[in-house]
Amino acid sequence: MEKLLLKNTKTIILVSDTCPPDTNGVSTTMKNYIKHIPELGYDLICITPDGLPYFNCPFSNDVKLAYGLDFKQEYFDKSFAVHIMTEGTLGIQARKFCIRNDIKFTTSYLTMFPEYIQKHLLVPIWITRKYFKWFHEKSEKVFCCTEDLANKLDWIKKEKAICPKGVDTQLFCVKKKKESNIKTALYVGRISREKNIDDFCKLNLPDIKIAIGDGPQLEELKKKYPTVSFIGKLKPEELVEYYQNSDVFVFPSKTDTYGLVMLEALACGTPVVAYPINGALDLADDNTVFVDDDLNHAISIAFDHADKNEETYKNKMAQKSWMKSTEELCSQLIFNSV
To answer: What is the pLDDT of residues 172-229, one digit of tens each?
Structure first.
């Protein structure tokens, strides 16, 4: 459990079942909230699996499901907001504590688990949606990263708040690409089934396909697709060069709510292709982000029509900073009086 304190009249308590150094979008979001919330003048308390007993998730051994959460009285010495970012074991414990003590709280819907579970475990969506509906029904607001996602969550009868994601534009920046007849397609993310990486590996168009990341499917896909270069996990600063030197970034997931890696690629001046889902639809245009049910077709359009002007990408990312995202989060939280 990590606690960051500054002198202030308000405290923000974030609860998440995943956090740095985990490699996923929620962890990246947490990392940036941890950085920027104190800069906005709030005290910050982060409740994560760090320092708590846990067991490994049955479906993903690199995910920790923690228990034994103990809220301390000092957390509530002044006006405070509780925001639960994930629906795992820590989220359940925090939810129960808030309801029992008549504390108002908000939640985030960051992963489309019902769709993922249906695809990979063949469990009908209506069954898993019952759990997520139960989890969020006592929340004051459910935070979504796009308006499109909020509209799709009409089965959760709660007020929705739009809190867009951000990107570190100081680290991820445009660099002029060298002209070449050899085309490179890049994937960055977790190497696991929910990311639908097979569709990336099967692509016909690019001459070179590079996949960066780690996960339970890594060794399996290495053997299955020997023509794809699997690099493994890299630090953010090591990723930049791959983004900058690729001709197209491919986001093959059909269950993600956004995909922060799309923003990182765009910030580096690389066009994105994706299926027409949530975050991709929010970013789609005629110059930088191309969506289609056929990724090969989307790539061909991107190669022919992607804008190569650096300013186009810089302008697109100008309003996508993590500070703006954090400001939006803080402005929509519900604070409890002492």
So the answer is: 999 877 777 899 999 999 898 889 999 999 999 889 999 999 988 999 999 999 999 9
User: pTM (2 decimals)?
Assistant: 0.87
Distance of CA 243 to the CA centre of its chain: 18
Tokens of 234: 């890299």
CATH number, domain 184-317, options 3.40.50.2000, 3.20.20.70, 3.40.50.10190, 3.30.420.100:
3.40.50.2000
- Domain 2-166+322-332, CATH: 3.40.50.2000
pLDDT tens digits along 295-333: 999 999 999 999 988 899 999 998 899 999 999 999 999
**Topology agreement, domain 2-166+322-332 and domain 184-317:** yes
At 229, the amino acid letter reads S
**Distance (Å, whole) CA 108 – CA 193:** 23
Nearest partner of 166 among 42, 36, 276, judged by Cα: 36
Q: Output the CA–CA distances (angstroms, integers) from residue 168 to 35, 263, 268, in the order listed.
A: 12, 9, 11
Burial bucket for residue 93 (CB in 10 Å: 0-12, 13-18, 19+): buried
